Amino acid sequence: VQLQASGGGLVQAGGSLTLSCTASGSIFKINALAWYRQRPGKERELVASILKVGFTHYTDSVKGRFTISRDNAKNSVSLQMNSLKPEDTAIYYCNAGGSTFNPGRSWGQGTLVTVSS
């Protein structure tokens, strides 16, 4: 499937943003959907993933602040980000078709999130 991410922007520290990712086809049979990010000067890293059965995984730095969800009827996956910190500044990518900890082949184009202090 092709993925289209949206929702990035500029926000002050402590603020919130919701990222959305819509697939070109059905995600019903896709087990893992995920969000990754690439911070300036860093490698791309897993932020959160969600399985078809609803199991979720978060990297330690976002636990309690970010929530990943999927809507199979709308072929979409979202990332609600609260209490944002400057270190959350990154390009965020949605991903489909991998596993809890590893990415699949389908990537969205990336959406930039900038958190000002």
Topology readout:
Blueprint: E1 3-6, E2 9-12, E3 17-23, E4 32-38, E5 45-51, E6 56-58, E7 66-71, E8 76-81, E9 90-98, E10 106-107, E11 111-116
Description:
With 117 residues, the chain is an all-beta fold. The protein contains no helices and eleven strands. Strands 2, 4, 5, 6, 9, 10 and 11 form a seven-stranded mixed beta sheet that branches. A four-stranded antiparallel beta sheet has the order 1-3-8-7, with no helix packed on it.
Features:
4-stranded antiparallel sheet, mainly beta, 52% strand, single chain, globular, 117 residues
Q: Summarize the helix and strand pattern as letters.
A: EEEEEEEEEEE
**Percentage of helical residues?**
under 10%
Helical stretch count? 0
What is the alpha-carbon Rg in Å? 13 Å
- Largest beta-sheet characterization: 7 strands, mixed
Structural class category: mainly beta
Q: Proportion of β residues? A: over 45%
* Count of distinct strands: 11
Identify the overall geometry: globular
Weakly predicted, low-confidence segments: none
Measured between the Cα atoms of the first and last residue, the distance is 37 Å
Summarize the structure.
The protein is an all-beta fold and 117 residues long. Helices cover 0% and strands 52% of the residues. The strands form two sheets. Strands 2, 4, 5, 6, 9, 10 and 11 form a seven-stranded mixed beta sheet that branches.
